[in-house]
Specification:
By secondary structure, the protein is of the alpha+beta class. The protein contains four helices and 15 strands. The protein has helices spanning about 10-20, 90-100, 105-110, 155-165, and strands spanning about 5, 30, 35-40, 55, 55-65, 80-85, 90, 115, 120, 130-135, 140-145, 170-175, 180-185, 190-195, 195-205.
Length: about 200
């Protein structure tokens, strides 16, 4: 399975990174290693040597059929479920890599950096682009978003990725994070919600 992720896909978060809204001509896509995947409520072990680790709360979609060069108008047929995921980022390392013009993977793809919640069938929602989600840490909401604020919509992302990669059943896509990223610390308790449904629950160690 492949783990895709979209960078800078929410207006406010995008502005916070650039000082002004900077919408690229195409979605910013990167990949995470399969060893980055963390699920089933397993704890996240904060790396000792990567500096500040920040959460990025995202809606994740699950690919349900084989597809290549998918038309945007048919893209909705190729995913069947959503959840909340955490795109953990070694922020200081990412800054250094960006300044050097190097890829982000070292700061985004380390073990445990792709936390995944429990899947909810897509049919439970009226509109994929009207889903609210949020993250609580130690009982306090620290990040929230709505898919209506995406710069590139889910169907656009699926179609775009399929131009370059054959999508296969079980592939997943982290669709970008809203404003509100922040650091995690040992003993933090993270809970992620799609609307009012808790789909993510784990601890940092």
């Amino acid at each position: 399975m492949k783990i895709f992720a979209v960078g800078m896909n929410y207006s406010a978060h995008n502005k916070s990174l650039h000082g002004t809204l900077h919408k690229t001509d195409e979605p910013v896509i990167f990949l995470k290693a399969d060893s980055a995947l963390l699920k089933d409520h397993k704890p996240f072990f904060i790396p000792d040597d990567l500096g500040r680790i920040e959460y990025e709360t995202e809606l994740v979609v699950r690919i349900c059929r084989l597809g290549k060069t998918i038309s945007e108008r048919f893209a909705h047929r190729y995913y069947d479920a959503v959840t909340v995921g955490i795109d953990f980022t070694a922020r200081e390392l990412q800054q250094k890599l960006r300044e050097q013009g190097r890829p982000w993977e070292l700061s985004k793809s380390f073990d445990g950096a792709a936390v995944l919640g429990e899947w909810v069938e897509k049919d439970k929602f009226l509109d994929i682009q009207r889903i609210h989600f949020h993250l609580d840490i130690n009982g306090k909401t620290v990040q929230e978003g709505c898919t209506s604020d995406m710069l590139y919509k889910v169907d656009e992302i699926v179609s775009y990725i399929s131009k370059y990669f054959t999508l296969k059943t079980g592939d997943i896509i982290y669709t970008g994070c809203p404003m509100g990223c922040g650091p995690v610390a040992i003993n933090d308790h993270l809970e992620g919600y799609v609307e009012d449904r808790k789909v993510l629950d784990f601890n940092c160690k």
